[in-house]
Every structure is written in C-alpha cells, then in structure tokens.
Design goal:
Number of helices: 15
Low-confidence stretches: none
Strand content: 15-25%
CATH class of the largest domain: Alpha Beta
Radius of gyration: 23 Å
Number of domains: 2
Distance between the termini: 82 Å
CATH topology of the largest domain: Glutaconate Coenzyme A-transferase
Structural class: alpha/beta
Helix content: 25-40%
Strand order of the largest sheet: 13-12-11-10-14-19-23-24
Length: about 450
C-alpha cells in the first residue's frame, strides 16, 4: 500500500470537498478543537442554495462560518451534543437544538443510527498523516471513530498545529478509510480558559480536597470550582494520584507538574492519565502532545460506569446550576433556557459511587446574583418548571456549597431536606424550611 500516493489521490481543495454536501444531508462537524475551518467556510458559501441540511457537533469554541449566513434557520439546523455559549445564542435564532444523552452512549448512538439519520458527510480537523498512514484525532477521541465508521463520506482537514494525542484505541483514522483530504491554513488551536476561582470556589474546594485520599483517581469538570480543587491539590501533600476523566482540563496539568500524579495506584491503565477529550490553554495542548503518560480514549470507555467503578477511590467533582430539597440536581438549564447538556455527569456520579472508596461531589455556590443585583438561592424547594434533572435524587451522593458538605445517600426525605438546607445561604433557610413543611418533608425546625 503506497500511502503517499493514496494521500495525493485523495487531496482536494476545500471548495471541492464542500460540494459533497447536498440538501437534506446530515453533516458531522465533530467536536471542540476538531470542528472544521477551511471546509466550513466553503460550505457557508453554498448554504444559501441548499435547504434542510442538518449539522451535528458540540462545544463550539469559535463561531462557524455557516452560522453567519443570512437567515440560517431557512437552510440548516445545528444539532449539538453539548452546547457552548456560541450555541446557546443560536438557539434564540431558531436553528440550534440539543441532543439529550448520557455521553458514554454517544458512540453507540452513531453505530445504532437508522439509515436516514446516519452522517452523509463527516468533516473534522486532525493532525497530519504519520508514517503509518494514520491521522490522529488530537484531543478528541470522544466519539470520532464511531462518526467515521458510520459516515458515507469522510473528509479530513489537516492542521499541523493539532497535538498528537496517544491512546490505545479509536484515537485516529487510517488513510484507507478517508475519502478526501484538505490541507487547510493550519489555524492555531483555540484556547478555552477556565473561569477564575472565586472565594466561594476556594471555600468549596477546601471541603472537597479534605475528602481525597492518597492514591485517589480524579475526574474534574470544567469551571471555577473544579479548577480551584485542582489548584489546592497541586499545593497539597497528596501523592500517587491518578486521572480518569471525561474532559482533560488545565488543572490536571498543574497537578501533574507539581508531581502529584503517578497513576501508580490505578487498578486499570496504571500510570496513564485517561481522558475522552481535552480543551484548555496552550499549556494543556503542549502537555498532551506526544505524551505517552496521557491516554486519549473513546467515551464509551472513559465514561462507562463499569470502567469508572473498576478504579478504587474514584473522586468525581462536577458543577450544578441549581438543586432542590429532594436532592435533584440540574446541571443543564435555567428553567426552559438551555445552558449546556448532560455530558457525562451522571455517568461519573453512578460510577464513582460503585467504586471501592469512591465518592461523587456536586458543587455549586449557594447563591447567585441576577443582572439587576438581586441575590437568589441555587437551592430551591423544587426545581424551576422546565429545569432538567441531570442527576436524580436516588443517585446524588455528596452536595457541597461554601456552607458545608452533606452526604445524601441513605437519608429519608426529611433528613435530606434538613441536610440540604444546612448548606443553603442563611438568608434563605427559613424560607426553605417553610416550603419543606408544605411539601411534608420537614420534621423539625431550628426555630422551635
């Protein structure tokens, strides 16, 4: 097999690649840093002539050119597996929609899709072909192998700046399975900086770090609180930590550079930092590039509760938008206003509790301020109408705010209400007690 000749035979212009997209097609735009650029620009030029084109993607880190055409809703839909701020704005314009999922199931979604829903065209950025004929997916193993496996046409847009991320399976595609190759303009990989930690974040982080033993295996979500946890771990006396996570974030680099990560105590993938995808700053991309300590893997492996539960002392740390007195957690919406998606939160909540010595932590600030300065509680009597239950009350383990940490496992409804109110902002506790009494889940009052 002459892979160099094959490469030249499949090399086309972005304009030629864009011509493969037709009205009625399903077009997959991959995920985060692998979203196409050059071919996207050419498809945008054609879209005004097309109708009912359906794109799939997620966690957009820049605005695609297709979003910028006139009256986009007349020509296409954007179907996101997990939404960023860019995609939230597109919802209001009437052309973006969310695909509910447990992230661990996403590769299977593709493999089980009916003929009318499977991708007609898959387009994504990848690292240049190596000497064996493989294009590495970069920090995006996630579900891309399943996308390629089920797509009728596969188009690789080469980017020399894409980090090469080692894995064990499904971290790249061979040229024999690629239909077209586009050599783009090699744009720099976009950065996603986590929100800076606040005093509240740091207070929550201290409570969580105290629960982490030496040799624990970590999963961190994105945001100020998980980053604050990472910063504290990097400064702590903890040792021999492992990593097995859905998203690889900058905090892991800090912990690793502080010498806290060895993976020596991991029951599986010993010595490897395992992740489904990564997004962060240049520091993160440089660290992942050709680093044999890091293992890029599909989410059907990283997020499978059977994999997670096989790792002792698994510590899962994630955020919430709000929660209620029953212990239901919403991490996806503000009422009917969509924010992000389920991602793998429930996967890790379930898997961590099944782990020997494992714990899951859902953390949030007790309050937030509205645009007009009003203080509102994130702990509610019941979730707002339309809010999504990401973690059911039966699955929630530890809840953490700046006012404390509670473990809900094994508690009756009145015990749960009492525990949850104890970590609410003091200004709202009496109101929550009164609501709990109305709902018949309150047994005693601190006012009596």
């Amino acid at each position: 097999m002459d892979i160099r000749k094959m490469y030249q035979d499949k090399l086309v212009s972005a304009s030629e690649a864009a011509k493969t997209v037709k009205s009625g097609d399903w077009v997959d735009y991959a995920w985060t840093t692998s979203t196409p650029v050059a071919v996207d620009a050419e498809i945008a030029k054609r879209l005004p002539e097309l109708y009912n084109v359906n794109f799939r993607g997620g966690i957009l880190m820049w605005v695609p050119e297709i979003f910028k055409i006139e009256n986009p809703a007349d020509h296409f839909t954007w179907n996101s597996w997990h939404m960023s701020g860019i995609e939230r704005k597109a919802i209001a314009q009437g052309f973006a929609f969310y695909g509910p999922m447990r992230y661990s199931e996403l590769p299977r979604f593709y493999r089980d899709m009916s003929e009318e829903n499977r991708p007609d065209v898959a387009i994504f950025q990848a690292a240049p072909m190596d000497e064996h004929g493989f294009f590495n997916f970069g920090p995006n193993a996630s579900h891309l192998a399943a996308v390629c496996e089920t797509s009728r046409t596969v188009i690789v847009e080469v980017n020399e700046n894409m980090p090469v991320c080692y894995g064990g399976t499904e971290e790249g595609i061979h040229i024999s399975k690629v239909d077209m190759i586009v050599e783009g303009d090699n744009p720099s990989i976009p950065e996603m900086a986590g929100a800076p930690a606040t005093e509240v974040d740091e207070a929550v982080a201290k409570l969580i770090v105290n629960e982490i033993p030496d040799g624990a295996c970590l999963q961190l979500g994105i945001g100020g609180m998980p980053n604050a946890v990472g910063s504290l771990i990097a400064k702590s006396d903890l040792k021999d930590l492992g990593v097995h996570t859905e998203m690889y974030v900058d905090a892991f680099v800090d912990i690793a550079m502080a010498g806290k990560i060895t993976g020596a105590k991991k029951n599986i993938d010993k010595g490897r930092q395992v992740y489904g995808f990564g997004a962060g700053t240049k520091k993160l991309y440089d660290y992942l590039n050709r680093n044999p300590e890091c293992m890029s893997a599909p989410v059907s492996y990283t997020n499978d509760i059977r994999t997670i539960s096989a790792l002792d002392n698994f510590m899962s740390i994630n955020n919430a938008v709000d929660l209620d007195l029953f212990g239901q957690v919403n991490a996806e919406s503000a009422g009917i206003k969509h924010i992000s998606g389920a991602g793998g939160q429930l996967d890790f909540v379930l898997g961590a509790y099944l782990s020997k010595g494992g714990k899951s932590f859902i953390c949030c600030s007790s309050t937030f301020k509205t645009k007009d300065g009003q203080l509102k509680s994130r702990i509610l009597p019941t979730l707002n109408p339309g809010s999504i239950v990401t973690d059911t009350r039966a699955n929630t383990h530890h809840l953490v705010t700046e006012y404390g940490m509670v473990n809900l496992k094994g508690l009756s409804t009145w015990q749960r209400a009492e525990a949850i109110i104890s970590i609410a902002h003091p200004q709202f506790r009496d109101e929550l007690i009164a609501e709990a009494e109305k709902m018949h889940i309150w047994r005693r009052s601190n006012k009596r």
